[in-house]
Amino acid sequence: MDLSKYEIEDLINRLQKGENIPQDYKFKLFPTQQKEYELVYGGKMRKEDVLANEDGVFPVPLQIEKIFNGKRETWEDGWKNIIAFGDNLQFLKTIFENKDPLIKDKVKGKVKLIYIDPPFGTGDEYDGNKGQKGYTAKTKGAEFVEFLRKRLIVAKEILADNGSIFIRIDYHFAHYVKITLDEIFGKDNFQNEIVINRFKRQLKNLKQFNHATDSIFFYSKTQNHGFYEIERERLNTFTGEKAEPVWRGMSSPGIRNPQERNIFGKIMYPPKGRHWTFKQTTLDDLIKQNRIRINDSVQFTDTKGNKVRGLPEYLQSTLVPVDNLWTDLKGYVFNASYPTENPEELLERVILSASKEGDLIMDFFAGSGSFASTAEKLNRKWITCDIGKLSFYSVQKRILNIEKSKSLGKNNKKYRKQAKSFVTLNTGQYDLEKVFNLKHKEYSNFVNNLFEIEPINKTISGIKIDGQRKDGHYALIWPYWEFSDASVDEEYIHNLHSNIGKKIGNRIYIVAPASYVDFISDYYEINNVRYYFLKVPYHIIKELHKVQFKKFRQPQSKKNVNDLEDAIGFHFMKQPEVETNLITSAKDVKITIKKFYSDFSEDETGKELANLASLAMVLIDKSFDGNTFDMDEFYFAEDLLPKKKNKKDDENIAEELKMTSEINLPVMAKKDCGENLMIVYIDIFGNEFKEKFEINKDGRN
Length: 701
Known about the structure:
Blueprint: H1 5-17, H2 26-29, H3 47-51, E1 62-68, E2 81-85, H4 88-97, E3 111-116, E4 125-126, E5 135-136, H5 141-158, E6 159-169, H6 174-185, E7 190-197, E8 213-220, E9 231-233, E10 247-249, E11 251-253, E12 261-263, E13 266-268, E14 274-276, H7 280-288, E15 292-301, E16 307-315, E17 319-321, E18 333-335, E19 338-341, H8 344-354, E20 360-363, H9 370-377, E21 381-386, H10 389-400, E22 422-427, H11 433-436, H12 440-450, E23 453-460, E24 463-469, E25 474-477, H13 490-500, E26 507-513, E27 523-526, E28 529-536, E29 577-584, E30 588-597, E31 615-621, E32 633-636, H14 637-640, H15 653-658, E33 663-664, E34 668-669, E35 676-683, E36 688-694, E37 699-700
Parallel strand pairs: 2-21, 2-22, 3-6, 3-20, 20-21, 25-26, 26-28
Antiparallel strand pairs: 1-22, 4-5, 6-8, 7-8, 9-17, 10-16, 11-14, 12-13, 15-16, 18-19, 23-24, 24-25, 27-28, 29-30, 30-33, 30-34, 31-32, 31-35, 35-36, 36-37
């Protein structure tokens, strides 16, 4: 301790009197372990505690939602690209733990590049160019820094030793993030601050300059990192526009040996006090390319004191090495499909500079899917993750339709290649292997508790009824152990209906493992009787965690799509109760949501949520192929509210929804719809209810 005699006496005196210790003594009593500097703020955790899950965020089982194979090309080693839904910190910790069979020994230590564009903790609104509402990233101060820092700590551990990370950030927090990155990766592994364009504002009457740029911080895990020089077109220094190559004198300041060069078969010495710009081998190549000439109008005195007429000149190249000023590229692409989107040409430059074809690269703030799309086009293996359902479906749509998108480069041609095989995953789901291995009675007790089914002893037309839910409708537990080669399919439902269809009211629940249910929708209807599917497995069990979990929140408006939140664990998935009305005419398709109830109480109050109050968003596939949901349109709950003249009336969306008796989806032109329509209704906790409509038959299924 670096304390003077006076300071020691002062401390003893204060302790004896029970007085507070002045803040000035903090670093003398507890000197920092950092060599130079670090950020100090409330709530900052030690790296060791983050990796040991002392923050209450744990690795979680990964569960495949769907594998997209078909005729898709696959990697020789069997790798499938990954789109993951869930909290990215949980996902990163699962990779770091390296136990889940889906990713064991396939990802940790093998990621060559990570790129992230986290929602900035700013409060700034980002507005598109088509009048759509912007979003606000609201997390601020130390909370934002620690949110990001924990993810960066784990991200470093899963990078390959020769891997790199690129982090895009804006001016509000760039300085804090830079210090945090120095702390995690080491300041010696800082490679560049790359300056890129920001969305442009030309505000007047300010007391500061308009902000026109963002930063990308480029760090490597070690000094032995992969870096690949890339080139761009030569640009005019002042206008930023493409510049035509010009002839330049082939000499540079200073004397270097050897001085002479063989130019067009003649030995020439450079002008006095200068040297020839190029080595002989480079010069020979330029001569072959017709990029060297002798300008006879220029006379000079060479280093030997001779007067020479005719100065060698070289023609500039059309391409130049890329430096750290990337303002020749767009900063963001704004469209109606997603609030902000990184341009593919920006991501192309990042990916080409830090990875090779076949390398595994990652983005754990997936957003609109630009990174995954660019990685696919550049023939990289990729992983992407996001906590938002809109992002999850947006990335899927982008990859499913990638052949229709623009190819990289400036030729405006379509990509015209189908994406390689990929898989969608859910994080935070319990694999239930132990549950499936329970005795049949114990399994039945488990699912009865899970889905709040009261066991009953009843038989209808020879069919055993296992229980009754709190809404009064019957439930069947499908005995998967007796039908290992069968599934809950249309044939099973029709056979069941022929026996009990007229005796069970208008609905019955069927509990079955998700892998044994052949329906993507959540119910199947025959003659006004709905057969609802309660699918197992669902989200991770609360008791698996040592701290109280909290549910993921889905936004009810576009402006909140990038709100930041840590997850402790998932809740059990419980489908919302949804009731809709379909009206079709020769030209239009109209759908009204009459009822939307979430089977959860409000966390803060414990009160049951009112009708429609928990609706977050509605996703629509207008031409559902019966297998893959391919989103065509989406609406946040805010978009579906009656229009108000005063924008302030919409600030509390849930309150507005409570006062709404029903919600009409925007009318769809029948000519734009296929035979089947699939709609996914999502509540604020991320629970989904899927409904399929048969448009041409004026019915639903």
